[in-house]
Design a protein that fits this description.
The protein is mostly beta strands. It contains no helices and six strands. The chain has a six-stranded antiparallel beta sheet with strand order 5-4-1-2-3-6, with no helix packed on it. A hairpin with a 5-residue loop joins β2 and β3.
Length: 78
């Protein structure tokens, strides 16, 4: 598990299964010490949007072999 900083957050105003589709950009440090940013599409309930405001630190899991494979713990990824 790794910590990541939210550097961008936007509610797309589109809904998937009644949950808002959001765009998030995360900045985090890999196990090799490289700092990287990734863009994600995530379904986040409206009442949880405050957890993802810019500057927030969240917990993620990622595949070191494929940095596009990122999971925000507790959220539905697209």
């Amino acid at each position: 598990m790794t910590s990541a900083e939210v550097v961008y957050f936007q509610d797309s105003l589109a809904k998937v299964q009644y949950r808002p589709l959001c765009y998030i950009k995360l900045k985090f440090q890999t196990e090799q010490g490289q700092i990287t940013t990734e863009n994600l599409k995530v379904l986040i309930a409206k009442q949880n949007h405050h957890k993802y405001k810019v500057g927030s630190i969240i917990n993620i899991k990622y595949d070191p072999k494929n940095l596009k494979n990122i999971l925000i713990l507790g959220e539905v990824m697209l």
